[in-house]
Write the structure tokens for this entry.
Amino acid sequence: MTDTLVRPSPASAVDGERVIAKVGWRLAPLLMAGFLVAYLDRVNVGFAALTMNREMGFSPEFFGWAAGVFFIGYCLFEAPSNYIMHRVGARLWLARIMVSWGLIAAATAFVWSENSFVALRFLLGAAEAGYAPGAILYLTYWTPAAQRARILSAFLVAVPLGSAIGSPVSGVIMTLMDGAAGISGWRWLYFIEALPAMALGLICYFYLPDRPAQAKWLADDERDWLETTLRRETAPQDENYWRALTDRRTLALGVAYFGAVMALYGLSFWLPQIIKGFGASILAAGFLAAIPYVCGATAMVLWSRSLDRRGGAVGHTALACVIGAVGLIAAAYAPSHFLAMIALTIAAIGSVSVLPSFWTLCTLTLGPADAVVGVAVVNSIGNLSGLAGPWLVGLIKGASGEFSHALLALAVGPLLTALLVMRRARR
């Protein structure tokens, strides 16, 4: 009787789509949950402002600027953070980021003056710096280019979901907890919504593998296929990661991202106050503010699938920007609150749908070596719009007394991005 030697399946026999699906289901939910909480902790200031501004005596101009100070700390520390993550591994570094920003977000509940608010917003940005670009870079270690948009979408959908889930939750916390133990609702909001970040940081440390070679939940042949496929896409490059700081591609992509997300942050920080201006209560504003982002999350998933199926990251990025700008312009001229909500929903759809197509374009343009620091630099430049957008809205609102002109100003950002991306593609 002859023993039969069982040989492992060749890499060519592996179902690549199934492998990527396993990777996505294993990694994306945790990273998405972390980004959802991060986004909520950076924009819940928009809900807190509904009562905080009056209690603390903050003017629209001061609030718009101080809320955006988050992005100064965020942008200063992003590139170093990504470099450290590449060296020490995602498991340790992303966990550190989550726990530290959770502690500072909770401390925001104890602000007592304008200066303390500005300082804590800066520290929150510095603590969170590196999570989003780090997670994007981390996902490139696991996903080939052909499947990257859908995996990035599963992570980036946290942006609209953070507002869609956070808006009603924030409204409920501020309504039900106001006055509990003699503490204002906006202070409870900061404290309660900071707790999940610390819990997720601990989970991340024990759950997240650094590289495919450590993925024991993949079969040997699946792991071999994934590593071989990723290695085949990676051209030999030197490890001068910091050259991305002066690379024209990086700077151009950063300016393009600035325009793309200027509208997103302008809406995120001010939408609750825009809707409250329609005559809604704090609780109603929480639920109404969720509508644009629920629609945006759905559109983002469909948009990324279209990109993976058809290709054309440039076209998908430019068209999403145009849709967002059209929504903002329509909202500025809407003759009724109902039509304004529809237009704001269109603006949100365009503003969030651009994210996976832009980051797919960015990672493909930079390549693996330059992406280590380049992704962080692009994200840093782009997220300066988180200071510029809300501050611009606050200045225009303070000067004119209404939001219409501010919405028109925000529309310039995504239109600029569409032009820059198309021009870059023609070159």
